[in-house]
């Protein structure tokens, strides 16, 4: 690979992107970030140096996407409206996530890029029928965000059949880590617990705390993206998780220990929908050579201590 090979990275100035870019530079790539900077960090991008270019533009504008992608050999598409914002404003979500998906995929097909890595989501499954959740399980997306992620995977299949586009769709589970906005959907429970604990208050858990998530550290998410750019197999969705579901009750205990608080959680007795999540991680091993490296207890403890 020559040092001139450039990765086109939509949303690359955001939370996940800023963890991926150093790995791409380490591999010898140059990076062209395409980001509307609504949630991007301009100073962090500038600190990467001359091998990282920033185009301050929006994926809704197909002409801008097409022009900016010229000369890039690979694409990472991460730009999207978040899951909670998609419910409060479905119009913007459809505009950015659906139209944006299509603009990026169509441009990649036109330019003949070697590989497109799409940041999809485990939310395409909806409430799972079984654990662990496998890539071939029934999909039942529930919000505009989740629906757009599933549609994005279908669109990739169209451009694969029509134009030979090579793609990998990474279905991220519950991402957390340093640098994440406190409004992030999947970390709201973490932030709520930590804020209460630091104020000397016990975390409040609805029901028995049996709801669970597969929390995966952003460093591992970034590794999966870097691996997907270069893996041999293509044209498949791949779960990116730890394979372990951490209940809300266990999460509270981990964070109590991390903060060093002398409290016990308070359980709010009411009926809650007990939803559980855990990734089947076999395909990630086979296709990407990926396994999560940061155990949840360590990752959460480091996150608390970094504040």
TrEMBL record:
SUPFAM superfamilies, A to Z: NAD(P)-binding Rossmann-fold domains
Domain of life: Bacteria
Residue ranges of the TM segments: 6-25
Transmembrane listed as a keyword: yes
Key word Transmembrane helix present: yes
Alphabetical UniProt keywords: Membrane, Transmembrane, Transmembrane helix
Annotated ranges, domain NAD-dependent epimerase/dehydratase: 9-241
A Pfam family it matches: Epimerase
Family label: Belongs to the NAD(P)-dependent epimerase/dehydratase family.
Protein name: NAD-dependent epimerase/dehydratase family protein
Organism lineage: Bacteria, Bacillati, Actinomycetota, Actinomycetes, Propionibacteriales
